[in-house]
Design goal:
The complex is a heterodimer of chains A (about 280) and B (about 775). In chain A, the strands form three sheets. In chain A, strands 2, 3, 4, 5, 6, 7, 8, 9, 17, 18 and 19 form an eleven-stranded mixed beta sheet that branches. In chain A, strands 12, 13, 14, 16 and 20 form a five-stranded antiparallel beta sheet that branches. Chain A has about 280 residues and is mostly beta strands. Chain A is built from two helices and 20 strands. Chain B is built from six helices and 51 strands. In chain B, the strands form eleven sheets. Chain B has a 22-stranded antiparallel β-barrel. Chain B has a five-stranded mixed beta sheet with strand order 8-15-16-11-12. A four-stranded antiparallel beta sheet of chain B has the order 3-2-5-6, with no helix packed on it. The longest helix of chain B has 10 residues, at about 95-105. The chains are: A mainly beta (about 280), B mainly beta (about 775). β1 of chain A pairs antiparallel with β50 (about 755-760) of chain B.
Chain lengths: ~280, ~775
């Protein structure tokens, strides 16, 4: 809804405006710890621990390879994750719907950054329905729509307000992972809707147009309201920038805090998710 | 005995009262200096908003003169006598040939004598001479050329006055509040200059009859309609065309005015060959109308309306429209020669809708609305030439409908109802020959009314969706929350001390309260932003402003005026938003809001040349505007709880505006502006989430865009007596002024980030308009 309004406004502005690449000098802020990770009911738990870098630095974020990463289920430690490579810590542990999870990361001293223990907020692993169907369909040229084959899913929402979801798309087994691929939604306006019983959730277009033979896998995952807000903010702060009607820049703060002080935050988000997948290969 | 008679008459007094109108069209003329001169006394007074005046003078013989810039002076002898005298003064517009001679005989020094300060008045005629974007005469854009008035950037919706947000301006069109003053997302204002008589902007020292907003009052008065003869005027421009028709219903007794305008560049979109543009709708229109009638020598009634709409959409995909509708009924009565009465009833309605076309499957439509019913009753009493009293009662009833969705599913946010009432009193007195004072007091109160469901939160100071502990349901008519108490007093004071015939010192103080807030977390407001009233969790905002000023006129005719003003303002309970706030279709809006303080201070210089072949002004503002949002936890703070510059904070703002009329046929207009860069936020680190990189911001508005400067030029050539061509160019030297600087990562290599400058106007924008009248 809001994006529609912004789109129309942006279209009007686009008639006269222009954009140029320029040189700027940016301030260099303090280095911050970044902790991202997830535990799901369908694959291995993982946590990435890195350091932030100056914004225009073209190198990858520096990994933390010597952290102690402990996963807790309902406040009981269930595993210590092992560092594999590039700051990624893994465990074979899988979560369970109805339980809640938290990660505790202890980082040794680094130049200009004292050692310390960081924790995520506790995240519940919520329910998630399977997709009802997934299919590809040819659509002709129309305003704001290219001709070609598109991928859709049908899906039913579980009754009871408060569900939040994230969709991840894999094209030929490669995760589509640009900022604009971040897709989240909630059941504010479609609680308990079942396809095709009215009022129903219309088919959701997830990809296209694309070629015959391309395989698409959809991962539908339950998420918390916290991650829903975080990803919306991340999307907004990276895509809706610089324009007349864009929100002011804001810190993108997740759920990682220094243990004992919620006001001192690290970057990143640790979350729990029930994941359901469906896949289709585009056909004639 | 006989030689003693004049002395005896001089000791007795009588009242000369009446009205002043434009002889050409019968329009009332406010701001006219009416002077009495006789052997024993010389005194003057200024006509009020409705062109009325009352002078108490000796009973001896003398003369009355009436003077207004741009009009030939009027003079009438008045015989000795004790009876009151009623005058209907008709001023003739100055013709060009007379100009130089006539103007020099005038002494238009009212700016030196009045307590009024921080006020700018412009007539439609003045505004039309200034170069405008695409030739569209734009009142709001012209106001931003005055000191103390700015915008976030070019094509921004609304305007900012002395550090105030755009929602802190009370915009009145014939006394009706207007909630969106822009067409086309801020490119043009909704005021059709052909339908507007004059515009007054109060930046400070607000008279006590105005209230409800913190930072300014923009009082726009529509034309009353020509009561002398039928007339029409119009224009054909690149963007839109307009036509105004006016004339007498009963000569000199009743008249009407109807004006319409519509943009039409959407009509050319089908010829672009682009499928998306062929199916795009984009236009605006507005209609202004007014009738007035002199019912008796004492009574006059007016009825006026405005209706405007913007429409934007792709025919098969979505429709988006918004607009204001206002209607005003007004009754003026001269109760007696000293007492004037005014009663006004207003209805104002702002709506927007957004969604799919009705026949789309699935269909969806979001409607939002704010309705106001306003009643004002006021009196003005001229106790003497040195003493004027104003008092009145005002009431506004609000209905806020923040959102209703219909179509595939139906859902609505709760409506909110509220009532705002005010009493005001103002005393304008000339204390000594040199010192004048206007003291005013306004008392306002506000009630948020049911039906409404209100949540109770664990910490009511910082509500969150997860901390609801109780729910209270209020029935229709129940009082949800009131704001009645000592905080409702809004004192106003203005002093003027004449240090000489051409110079004065001024001082003003005013407190204002604002009970409704525009909920907008965008750099500039959009038509889809909603207004919400003060209530259980939103307090009214307050501002205190002190301003000091110096006025110095130059030349015999006071044709050159220098005004220096300094101001300081402190704001409290300003609404701001949590990081990442979702304000669209949110019922418990308090969970997204934060409140804080603000401060603004600055100095303004205005050098005006009002007469001669070259007229115009140079305006300069040096100012600072900052905000403070602090709280006990990280999420209740902005910028770590430290002061930060507001989005529209600009240290330097310079405008040079001139009109050169070398002959009767030609007018050459020019505008040059220079503004310091506006605050923006630069990232100071790069974070990462699952392979997606993002900026880390820790210092809100800690950086600035480069400065903005721009030259606009126009030439108007009259063709005969009734038509003219207007050619010009906006942004003449094609400067790419930065609206913002932002960053975008390379698609293939996301650690490779470029900085971009967004310019709203990328090049010079030429225009032409053909104007006619008959």
């Amino acid at each position: 809804m809001r994006r529609l309004a912004f789109f129309t406004a942006a279209s009007a502005i686009a008639l006269t405006s222009c954009q140029d690449i320029i040189e700027v000098e940016l301030p260099e802020g303090e280095t911050r710890l970044i902790v991202n990770g997830r535990v799901t009911d369908g694959d291995s738990a993982r946590v990435d621990v890195k350091w932030s870098v100056p914004y225009l630095n073209t190198d990858p974020n520096e990994p933390v390879t010597n952290a102690l990463v402990v996963l807790l289920e309902d406040e009981v430690a269930v595993d210590t994750l092992i560092h594999r490579s590039n700051g990624r810590y893994l465990s074979n542990f899988q979560g369970e719907v109805g339980r809640s999870y938290r990660v505790v990361v202890t980082v040794p001293e680094r130049e200009g950054y004292p050692s310390g223990t960081w924790t995520s907020a506790t995240e519940a692993l919520n329910r998630c329905n399977d997709a009802d169907s997934i299919y590809s369909q040819y659509l002709p040229r129309a305003p704001f729509q290219q001709e070609g084959r598109y991928v859709f899913i049908h899906w039913s929402e579980a009754p009871g307000r408060g569900d939040h979801y994230r969709v991840r798309i894999f094209r030929n087994d490669t995760l589509q992972n640009q900022t604009f691929d971040l897709t989240v939604f909630n059941d504010d306006f479609n609680d308990g809707f079942v396809f095709p019983t009215p009022p129903s959730i219309p088919p959701i277009q997830i990809a296209g147009p694309d070629s015959v033979g391309v395989k698409y896998k959809v991962e539908l995952g339950s998420i918390s309201m916290g991650l829903f807000s975080y990803l919306n903010l991340l999307r907004e702060q990276t895509l809706q920038v610089g324009g007349l009607f864009d929100p002011p820049p804001a810190p993108i703060v997740g759920n990682i805090y220094r243990e004992g002080n919620e006001n001192e935050y690290a970057l990143g988000y640790f979350y729990a998710s029930a994941i359901r997948t469906a896949e289709v290969t585009i056909s004639q | 005995m006989l030689w003693g008679l004049p002395l005896a008459l001089a000791a007795q007094t009588r009242v000369i009262s009446g009205s002043v109108v434009d002889a050409a069209n019968g329009e009332s003329l406010p701001g006219v200096v009416v002077t009495w001169e006789s052997a024993s006394k010389k005194t003057n007074i200024v006509t009020n908003t409705y062109g009325m005046f009352s002078l108490t003078v000796p009973a001896e013989g003398g003369s009355v003169t009436a003077q207004l810039l741009g009009y030939s002076p009027y003079k009438q002898a008045v015989k000795a006598g004790r009876e009151g005298v009623k005058l209907s003064i008709r001023l003739n517009e100055q013709s060009f040939e007379l100009g130089e001679v006539a103007v020099q005989s005038q002494k238009l020094d009212n700016n030196v004598k009045t307590t009024e300060m921080s006020v700018s008045s412009l007539t439609s005629k003045e505004i039309k001479k200034i170069p405008q974007l695409l030739g569209e005469t734009d009142i709001v854009r012209t106001l931003t050329l005055l000191p103390g008035v700015s915008t976030v950037g070019e094509a921004s919706s609304g305007f900012n006055v002395r550090g105030g947000n755009a929602d802190q301006n009370l915009i009145l069109l014939d006394e009706a509040p207007v909630y969106s003053s822009s067409h086309l997302f801020g490119f043009f204002s909704i005021f059709n200059a052909d339908a507007v008589r004059d515009v007054t902007l109060y930046k400070g020292g607000m008279p006590s009859n105005y209230g409800g907003r913190l930072s300014s009052v923009l009082d726009v008065r529509q034309k009353e309609g020509n009561s002398e003869r039928f007339a029409a005027q119009g224009g054909i421009g690149l963007l839109s065309s307009r036509l105004t028709v006016e004339g007498p219903l009963v000569k000199r007794k009743a008249s009407f005015m109807v004006s319409g305008r519509r943009s039409y560049f959407d009509l050319f979109l089908p010829f672009t060959g682009n499928l998306e543009l062929q199916n795009t709708t984009i236009y605006f229109y507005d209609v202004n109308a007014k009738v007035n009638a002199q019912l008796s020598e004492k009574d006059r009634v007016f009825a006026s309306m405005y209706f405007g709409r913007d429409q934007f959409g792709a025919q098969d995909l979505f429709d988006f429209g918004w607009g204001n509708w206002t209607s005003t009924l007004r009754w003026n009565r001269a109760v007696n020669s000293k007492l004037f009465f005014n009663a006004t009833a207003v209805y104002s309605d702002y709506t927007y809708s957004l969604g799919t076309p009705e026949d789309a499957v699935p269909s969806f439509k979001l409607d939002s609305r704010i309705q106001n019913t306003v009643t004002n009753v006021g009196w003005t009493y001229y106790a003497s030439n040195r003493h004027k009293l104003d008092w009145g009662v005002q009431n506004t009833y609000y209905v806020f409908s923040p959102g209703k969705i219909t179509g595939a599913f139906d859902i609505a946010l709760s409506k909110e109802y509220a009532n705002e009432s005010a009493l005001y009193f103002s005393d304008d007195i000339k204390v000594t020959e040199r010192l004048s004072a206007t003291t005013g007091l306004r008392y306002s109160g506000f009630a948020n009314l049911g039906p409404r469901t209100v949540y109770t939160y664990a910490d009511p100071r910082y509500p969150t969706t997860t901390s609801i502990v109780d729910t209270t349901v209020f029935a229709r008519g129940d009082v949800v929350k009131t704001f009645i108490g000592l905080a409702g007093f809004e004192p106003r004071l203005a002093l003027n001390y004449e240090v000489g015939p051409k110079a004065s010192l001024k001082l003003s103080y005013n407190r204002s309260r604002q009970y409704i807030h525009l909920i907008s977390n965008n750099t500039t407001a959009t038509p889809v932003n909603v207004w919400r009233p003060a209530g259980t969790y939103i307090d009214p905002a307050t501002v205190d402003q002190v301003a000091v000023g110096v006025v110095q006129n130059f030349r015999e005719d006071n044709g050159i005026r220098l005004t220096l003003e300094g101001y300081a303002k402190t704001f409290s309970n300003l609404v701001d938003y949590r990081d990442g706030a979702d304000l669209v279709f949110t019922d418990d809006i308090e969970t997204e809001l934060l409140t804080g303080a603000g401060r603004a201070y600055g100095a303004e210089v205005l050098l005006e040349k009002k007469t001669g072949k070259v007229t115009g002004w140079i305006g300069y503002t040096l100012s600072r505007t900052e905000r403070l949002i602090d709280g006990p936890t990280r999420i209740t703070r902005i910028n770590n709880g430290e002061w930060y510059p507001a989005n529209y904070d600009k240290l330097h703002d310079l405008s040079v505006v001139f009109t050169y009329s070398p002959t009767k046929r030609w007018d050459i207009g020019g505008t040059w502006i220079y503004q310091s860069g506006r605050p923006i936020t630069y990232p100071d680190a790069r974070g990462e989430f699952e392979g997606i990189f993002y900026p880390v911001y820790t210092n809100r508005n800690g950086a600035r865009t480069p400065a903005t400067h721009r030259l606009d030029l126009s030439i108007t050539r009259s063709v005969g007596k009734r038509a003219s061509w207007n050619f010009g160019v906006y942004n003449a030297y094609g400067r790419r002024n930065p609206y913002s600087i932002f960053f975008r990562a390379d698609f293939e290599n996301p650690t490779n980030v470029n900085a971009y400058r967004l310019s709203i106007f990328g090049s010079a924008v030429p225009f032409f308009t053909y104007n006619f009248s008959f």
